[in-house]
Amino acid sequence: MFLTISTRGDAAHPATDLGYLLHKHPDKAQKFSTSYGTAHVFYPEADDRRCTAALLLEIDPVALVRRGKGKGRGGAPDAALAQYVNDRPYAASSLLAVALSAVFSSALRAVCTARPERAATPLPLRVEVPALPARGGPDLVRQLFEPLGWSVSADPVPLDTEFPQWGDSRYVRLVLESEKLTLAEALRHLYVLLPVLDDAKHYWVSSDEVDKLLRAGAGWLPGHPEQKLITSRYLSRRWSLTRQAMERLELVRLAEADDSEVEAIDNAVPEDTEAAAEEKPAPLAVQRREAILAALRESGAARVLDLGCGQGQLVQELLRDVRFTEIVGVDVSMRALTIASRRLRLDRMGERQASRIRLVQGSLAYTDNRLRGYDAAVLSEVIEHLDLPRLPALEYAVFGHARPRTVLVTTPNVEYNVRWETLPAGHVRHGDHRFEWTREEFRGWAATVAERHGYVTGFVPVGPDDPEVGPPTQMAVFHRADTEKEAKAA
Ligand code: SAH
Q1: Phi-psi region of 186 (alpha: psi -120 to 50; beta: other; left: phi over 0)
Q2: pLDDT in tens, 392-425
Q3: Where is the Methyltransferase type domain (predicted)?
Q4: Which of the ends of the chain has fewer CB neighbours closer than 10 A, N or C?
Q5: How far is the CA of 332 from the centre of ligand 1 (A)?
Q6: What distance in angstroms lies between residue 418's CA and the mean position of ligand 1's atoms?
Q7: Same domain, 458 and 344
Q8: How far is the CA of 342 from the centre of ligand 1 (A)?
Q9: Where residue 412 sits, what CATH number does that domain have?
Q10: Are 87 and 167 in a shared domain?
C-alpha cells in the first residue's frame, strides 16, 4: 500500500522544503519497522520545482496473523484463509494511517524548527493514493474531502482491466489537490479519513481512540457536514464511544462559536435589541423569567430542572424562592456553566443554599437518568438552538425519558420579528438560532409532542401580545396527562 504527497515550489521557496516539513531527507530512502511490516519513505522526484514523497508500507500478512494482529473485530479470528489472502498488502487501510502517524508524527503536529513558517503556511499539495478501499464509493470520498478544501478526483478501479464486464472493485484511485491547506492539516485529514473510508480497523478500538480522533480532527472535524459518519466509522461504530466523541465535538463547536457569543446566546436576543423595540421598561428576558416563575409556582413544583440553563439567570431567580427545594441547571456548554457558577458564587455559598443547587454538564439530545423524577423542567430559548433533525432526540430525552410532571418551553415567535426595528427582514434574532417558528408551527409541534408522550398543553404569550403578529416570545406549558387527572380528582 502506497501514498504520495507532492508539492511545487520555486527558487525562493524550493519544493524540497517538503523534506524539512516531513523530517525526512529527500536524498535518502529510509525504512521503519512497524509491528505489521516495514514502512519505506523515499522521494521519486525532488528538485526546487517539484518534490514528491512516497510512503510505502510493506505488509507481511503471515507475520500479521502469527503476531495475533490479524484478528477480526472483537478479537475473533477471521475465517482461516482470509487471514492470509486479503487486500492488506495492497490497499490503503487503517494500517497505512497508523504508519503515517508513526513515520510523520512531527509533521502531523506541524513541528518544524528548520522551516517553521512553511509548516504554518498553506502549500500547493497533491496527494495520490492508487488503491483506496472506499466503502460508500467515489461520492462519499468527495463528501468527506471537499468540505475540507480539497479538489477531489476518485476514479473507481475496475476489478480486472481485461474483463471490464466484471465491473468496478470497491477501490478508488484517489487524487487530492489543494492550495489552501498546510501539510499538517493534510496529514491529519488522511490520518482520520483513510480508515473511515476503509471502514474496518485492524485493531480493537478502545476509548483512547476518542482522544486520537479529537486531536487529529481539531480545527476541521467539528462542524464537518459528515461529522457523525466520520466519528461513527472511525470508532468502528461503537455507539458509546461515538456518543462520547459527538458530545465533545459539540462542546468544541459551541466554544468556537462563541467567546463573545455565549453572552448573546445566553439571552437568545441581545437585551438591548429587545429593550430598544420595547415600550415597557422590563427587557423581554426579564419578562420571560417572570412568566416562567409564575407558571412554575402555579404548577406546585419544588424540584426543578433548568435545561439549557446558559449563564444561570433563571437558576439565580429560582434560588431566591425557597419553595424550590432542588434546582438543577443543565447545559452542554462548560463555558456557560462556568459563568453560571461564578454568577451564583457557588464557591462562597452557604451549605444550606448550596445543597439546593447543582449545575451539570450534559447534552439534551441524549437520554440521561440524572434528569428523571423531577417535578418540572424548563426549556427557555433552547429548542431553536438545535438543528431540526436533532429535535426529536431532545423531545424523547425530555418528554419520553426524564418525564417531569410539568414542562415549560419558550421560543421566539418569528411573526413578531417585523416589529423589531433593528432586525433586518427575514433574519432570525440570533446567529445561533437554527429555526424560528410562527405561533401555528409552535402549537403544531407542541400538540404532536403532547400526543406522543401523554401530556396536555396550554399556551402563554410573553411580552406585548400584538393583535396582528402575537407576542415576541411564545411559551407552551405541558402537564403530564396522568398527573393532571390525579389533580382534578383531588
Ligand atoms: N435558558 C437560557 C439560555 C438559552 S440559550 C435563557 O433562557 O436565557 C441556549 C442554551 O442552550 C445555551 O446555553 C446552549 O449551550 C444550550 N444548549 C444548546 N444545545 C444544547 C444541548 N444539545 N444540550 C444542552 N444544552 C444545549
Answers
A1: alpha
A2: 999 999 999 999 999 999 999 999 988 876 666 6
A3: 305-404
A4: C
A5: 7
A6: 25
A7: yes
A8: 17
A9: 3.40.50.150
A10: yes
